[in-house]
Amino acid sequence: MSEKVVVTGMNIISSLGLDLQTNWNNLVAGKSGVRKISLFDASGNITRIAAEVPSEFEELSRKYIKKRAGSQMTRVTKMCVTCAKEAVEKSGIDFEQMDRTRCSVILGVVNTGNSSTEKETTQQNRIFKSMTNSMSAWISLDYQLMGPNFVVNTACASSAYAISLGYEMIRNGQADLVIVGGADSIVNFEEIEGFNSLYAISVENNPPEKASKPFSKNRDGFVIGEGAGIMILESETSAKKRKATIYAEIAGYAITSEGYNIMAPMKDGEGMAFTIEKALQNAGIYKEEVDYINAHGTSTELNDRYETMAIKRVFGDRAYKIPVSSSKSMIGHTIGAAGAIEGIITILSINNGILTPTINLDQPDPDLDLDYVPNQSREKEINIALSNSFGFGGHNATLVFRKYN
């Protein structure tokens, strides 16, 4: 019989905080992490706002990363390594007591952030800073893990894919423990300019905290966020053996490709619906059991419309009874890190019995008529929850989380 896969550690670094509890408190309070860009002079960009990680992060990273290693990492790689080390620390893992050949690291990485914004890049460290595999490598090196370490790039679904692959390794008996997640930042002149030219990101600079407004009638694109999210996945046997705290079970997932368009999702959310449906089948979950959906919810015209249509297509009339909310309304779109960060938020919702809100939902779109948990968090018992991630290139992922009893 296949092993149950459980989550025994989690951590988030985002615009709302540098640790799990601070992030959760601010999410429940419905706070926005979107501000005017400070990482570079954005006066030449049409969009001049982003959800940046607080500047105190640099000091925190020095607690976990030695100076020489830090000089070979970008700020984004430091976010990932710091986030992972805190997750491992809090989960109580002692790798001395584990078979390191059965411990792995799989991360979703779109890029390392070695852009025009990155400071102190030299000829000596340029290669290390640009290696997308460096994030998983540094974590494996620090803990001397000898299971596979690698990264996967599927755009905005990258870290959801990483979680799915980690789940498979444990289910198939290839690993006892897998550190999964991702980190990202595209807060730089050239990428903001690129997304502006695609009309994909919000240009509502004033006030910044109102710009990300998923499912609203006046939504005008996503807001770039940055950060890292790390989960520790473990076989139930391994977790029980070391008496670990278990936060949730991963019941299943689906990863699919739409084969449709490099940027736009498949018309009327057909590809999204297929992914959600397949995830439920793979997890052995009935549609009636789903209590909550953490939406991809980007605040773009097509995503919000098609994701809503997909949920209706899968759940029928019951779609109106399932709360759906978007964390991106508060922390922006963290690209490669989004799947992991939002998966962790979903697990925290299960554990705390609280739905985090979709903020800035002041002008509802009459075509989008589901329960998006507008503006205020809400208490609700959650046993089964979904987390959706959909990326440019037609990369779709739905993760299914179950309360662990």
Summary of the model, kept short:
The protein has 405 residues and is α/β, with parallel strands linked by helices. It is 32% helix and 19% strand. It has two domains: 237 residues, Peroxisomal Thiolase, Chain A, domain 1 (3-Layer(aba) Sandwich), CATH 3.40.47; 151 residues, Thiolase/Chalcone synthase (Peroxisomal Thiolase, Chain A, domain 1, 3-Layer(aba) Sandwich).
Write up what this structure looks like:
- This protein has 405 residues and is α/β, with parallel strands linked by helices.
- It folds into 2 domains: 5-241, Thiolase/Chalcone synthase (Peroxisomal Thiolase, Chain A, domain 1, 3-Layer(aba) Sandwich), CATH 3.40.47; 252-402, 3-Layer(aba) Sandwich (Peroxisomal Thiolase, Chain A, domain 1), CATH 3.40.47.
- The protein contains 13 helices and 14 strands.
- The strands form 3 sheets. It has a 10-stranded mixed beta sheet, with helices on both faces. It has a two-stranded antiparallel sheet with strand order 2-3. A two-stranded antiparallel sheet has the order 11-12.
- Helix 2 packs across helix 4 (75-91).
- The radius of gyration is 19 Å and the shape is globular.
- The chain starts with a strand and ends with a strand.
